[in-house]
């Protein structure tokens, strides 16, 4: 049996050991041994395999060198999916297009064993920063941007044989040189010019991915235009730094004239016909005839100004310019017609009175019958006013067809 002094001794010694341990910064876990957690065996082995493959591929990969560096030129194929035509501007000579651009090439440095259970990997677009990608750009681009909702719209797919598919969604404003001589009965060709910025034809060859090079054109809706067709072309562009491959997608656009019929042609026809009303107004009603003539002239001026503001300041004459000028001439001539009638009527009366000829009628009705200016001037002028607009349209249409 332990005596009381021994019990006190062992109790004090135990307390001293615990106090020393906690004072030195230890914890209860340092004193009590805790078994380590069991490893998580629920993670699929495919994750480990994919991570291992990517790590092996990038271990000795040099992003600065193109695939096949020092050998034959790299074959780069492309296809385009048209999402939408957003706008076509005659003033700025450009159009806005949203599209999906896909590029395909082979990089043997990114191939792995065909015996692997993973044949293909689809990666986020951010992974493209770790490998070589083409320096493709749009040669006729004015402004472009990549979409970023909800993530940056880029895609990268790598196959076990080293084949790579690289896609992106972008909206671009592209220049389009337009010939507006036949406006608004014109047809335009607008292009998408794709080119390598730094690699010449001896390093990178660009080709369309036929027969599936272009998609979505049939479903695209263009304001004021109808897409009558498209074609793909490839050419070589020579500059001071070398010769570069260029791929072109040409859209054939036919302008829809319906908008201009209701906004320009029909109002002009009505204004010209309105100017004819003054031919039936008594020539002594000066206020009515002058007001009507000036109103039609100012209205034609307003219509012409609106049309010019929607078009660029170009030096050559457009077909709509000819039409508007002819309509303006008709309404202006209708105003001058009243001045001619008024001058002829009162001038003849003064001359008759001054000459003192006998038999000159003195009452108003007989004077009008004697002068008879209102009879022959409106008749001939109205015929010309009706025929010339129709003839001008026929001439312009024949010029366009030729």
From TrEMBL:
Keywords from the named record: Cell membrane, Chloride, Chloride channel, Disulfide bond, Glycoprotein, Ion channel, Ion transport, Ligand-gated ion channel, Membrane, Postsynaptic cell membrane, Receptor, Signal, Synapse, Transmembrane, Transmembrane helix, Transport
UniProt entry tagged with the keyword NADP: no
Species: Caenorhabditis auriculariae
Stored InterPro entries: GABAA/Glycine_rcpt, GABAAb_rcpt, Neur_chan_lig-bd, Neur_chan_lig-bd_sf, Neur_channel, Neuro-gated_channel_TM_sf, Neuro_actylchol_rec, Neurotrans-gated_channel_TM
Domain Neurotransmitter-gated ion-channel ligand-binding: 51-256
Main location: membrane
One of the Pfam families matching this protein, by short name: Neur_chan_memb
PROSITE patterns: NEUROTR_ION_CHANNEL
Matches recorded under Gene3D superfamilies: Neurotransmitter-gated ion-channel ligand-binding domain, Neurotransmitter-gated ion-channel transmembrane domain
Chain ranges of the Neurotransmitter-gated ion-channel transmembrane domain: 264-355
Gene Ontology CC: one annotated term: chloride channel complex
Subcellular location: Postsynaptic cell membrane
SUPFAM superfamilies in alphabetical order: Neurotransmitter-gated ion-channel transmembrane pore, Nicotinic receptor ligand binding domain-like
Cross-referenced PANTHER family: NEUROTRANSMITTER GATED ION CHANNEL
Protein name: Gamma-aminobutyric acid receptor subunit beta
Similarity-based family: Belongs to the ligand-gated ion channel (TC 1.A.9) family. Gamma-aminobutyric acid receptor (TC 1.A.9.5) subfamily.
N-terminal signal peptide: 1-25
A molecular function GO annotation: extracellular ligand-gated monoatomic ion channel activity
Membrane-spanning intervals of the chain: 257-281, 288-307, 322-345
Membrane topology note: Multi-pass membrane protein
